[in-house]
Design goal:
The complex is a heterodimer. By secondary structure, chain A is of the alpha+beta class. Chain A is built from 3 helices and 4 strands, in the order H-E-E-H-E-E-H. Chain B has a domain of about 180 residues: Nucleotidyltransferase, domain 5. In chain B, the strands form 3 sheets. A 5-stranded mixed β-sheet of chain B has the order 3-2-1-4-8, with helices on both faces. In chain B, strands 11-10-9-12-13 form a 5-stranded mixed β-sheet, with helices on both faces. A 3-stranded antiparallel β-sheet of chain B has the order 5-7-6. In chain B, a hairpin with a 3-residue loop joins strand 9 and strand 10. In chain B, helix 5 crosses helix 15 and helix 9 packs parallel to helix 13. The two termini of chain B are about 30 Å apart. Classes of the chains: A alpha+beta, B alpha/beta. The interface between A and B is medium-sized, with 14 and 27 residues.
């Protein structure tokens, strides 16, 4: 200072009003940035979670497919078992019926159950007993019945009865 | 970056000039290069009052770059014709003074106590600059001081600052409060009471004669009385003509413009007489005191801030044989000019 006894006070742009405005803007900007970074973090977090979930979903879908295929397999097995069980019941019934069909005077020595037929081997006292007591019920069951006889040593007759179910006729009946 | 902002803001220059019973507050609003607005207001206080604070604050709000300047009107101030710290004490005890060297030529000073008092008094608004009236005087008569040998006087309401410059070299300076004269009178009354009584019983001519006789007594003691013999020579017509030729014509024209205003202030005769007495006493000190390099003074330049009467001029011319040039000064505006020079802003008067 060339002329003054004292040096002037330092002048600053930061008057009280400016300080207030600056602090207001600083706080606002700080809060905005804080929110921005929070959202950025949240976005990142959500994306990461989403990726995890997508991976999990894919894994689950894969396992679901496996489970579905195994369910299908098990259902098939079940239906097969049921079919077999039913068949067995049918077979059992058929055998029971078959044995019910055979009169006491005729003795069966062998019976062959075919898919669409039945072959019976046995001994009958005579042809009439066979024809009336066995062939008649067999005819009512099967579509085609063939019988052949040959004499046994004791005077009775060995017989072979071959019976078939005609599938086409069965379909027509249904 | 702050400099850019500083350039964008306006500068508010506030100058406070305390007077005897009031204070002038002068405000200039400046851009970087020009003065935009000026305001002036007077307040009925010698320090600060609420009205003044409110007035100043209303302008301060406009810009953070405001500067408050105060003209130092304290009594214990002055100037000495040296910058040498060793020689300073030869003229004045500077231990309790704050001083500044002006252009490495001379020093102006004021009391540290007064500065502290000023800072305390104006604490509420704060002060940035305190200028000496000698700085104002030097700046105001810059055009004359550099080339002339003369007595320069700054007349303020309650005081006057006078300085003798010879080609910008200070020879003598003194700051004189008007109250000082009363003290001198009182002392004289005590020591020369009889003499005064005699004088009063004469023609009723007052203290002028006492001063003059006192002055002449002092002058008689001087060895360089020869210088004053020249004054007597001036009585001859030829010398008077020469004397007239030495007159500063430019200043005479300048003065003529202000004459009307001066005529209006004849009521202040008493104050002006006191001022005359102080100038006379001070010049006596200048001539008598061997501390100072006394040279004969022909011209006196007066910077008038109060509106002095023509009587003062007449007294100085007739009684002291001086060429008197009076310039009216707007003190607060001049102080503001120094603030601008200090800050190097606006268009400083050159």
């Amino acid at each position: 200072m060339q002329y003054s006894y004292i040096t002037p006070r330092k002048k600053s742009l930061l008057t009280q009003e400016v300080q207030l405005v600056l602090s207001f803007f600083t706080i606002t900007l700080f809060m905005l940035f804080l929110t921005y970074f929070f959202l950025l973090y949240k976005n990142y977090s959500f994306n990461k979670e989403r990726q995890t979930l997508v991976t999990q979903q894919i894994t689950l879908e894969n396992s679901l497919t496996k489970i579905e295929s195994s369910i299908t397999f098990i259902e098939e097995q079940k239906s097969l078992s049921e079919t077999i069980f039913t068949k067995n019941i049918v077979l059992k019934d058929s055998i029971t019926n078959l044995f019910d069909l055979v009169p006491t005077r005729i003795t069966l020595s062998e019976a062959k159950l075919l898919e669409n037929g039945l072959i019976l081997y046995g001994i009958t006292p005579n042809k009439d007993v066979y024809n009336f007591m066995l062939q008649a019920p067999l005819r009512s069951i099967f579509h085609k019945t063939y019988s052949s006889f040959y004499p046994a040593k004791n005077g009775w007759l060995h017989f072979v009865s071959t019976n078939y179910i005609d599938k086409e006729e069965l379909l027509d009946e249904n | 970056m702050f400099n850019i902002f500083e350039a964008l803001y306006r500068k508010i220059l506030i100058t406070i000039v305390p007077k005897s019973k009031s204070s002038d507050v002068y405000i200039e609003i400046c851009s970087r290069t020009a003065v935009l607005k000026q305001f002036k207001e007077s307040f009925e206080t010698t320090t600060l009052n609420k009205k003044m604070i409110d007035y100043i604050n209303s302008y301060i709000k406009e810009s953070p770059y405001f500067y408050i300047t105060l003209l130092d009107v304290s009594q214990t101030q002055g100037a000495v014709p040296t910058c040498d710290k060793v020689r300073l004490s030869y003229y004045n005890d500077m231990s309790t003074s704050e001083y500044k060297c002006f252009n490495k030529k001379w020093t102006f000073y004021t009391s540290k106590t007064d500065l502290y008092k000023i800072e305390k008094e104006y604490e509420e608004i704060g002060i940035d600059f305190v200028f000496s009236p000698f700085s104002v005087l030097t700046n105001f008569f810059k055009d004359k001081i550099d080339t002339n040998m003369a007595l320069y006087v700054l007349i303020q309401g309650e005081s006057l600052s006078l300085a003798v410059f010879e080609n910008s070299e200070l020879l003598f300076a003194e700051h004189l409060p008007l109250s000082l004269l009363n003290d001198i009178y009182n002392n004289e009354e005590l020591s020369h009471s009889e003499e005064i009584l005699d004088l009063e019983s004469d023609e009723g001519i007052d203290l002028e004669d006492i001063d003059m006789s006192e002055e002449l007594d002092e002058l008689n003691d001087l060895e360089d009385l020869d210088d004053f013999a020249d004054i007597e020579d001036l009585d001859s017509l030829e010398d008077i003509d020469d004397f007239a030729e030495d007159q500063d014509i430019e200043e005479v024209f300048y003065e003529a413009e202000d004459e009307i205003a001066e005529n209006e202030s004849d009521d202040n005769f008493n104050d002006d007489y006191q001022r005359y007495s102080l100038i006379q006493t001070s010049l006596g000190k200048y001539y008598n005191n061997k501390k100072y390099n006394s040279k004969f003074i022909e011209n006196i330049y007066i910077a008038d801030s109060v509106g002095i009467s023509q009587e003062l001029k007449r007294y100085l011319e007739e009684e002291m044989f001086l060429n008197v040039y009076i310039r009216t000064i707007d003190l607060s505006a001049e102080v503001t000019e120094i603030t601008k020079m200090e800050l190097n802003i606006c268009n400083t008067a050159t």
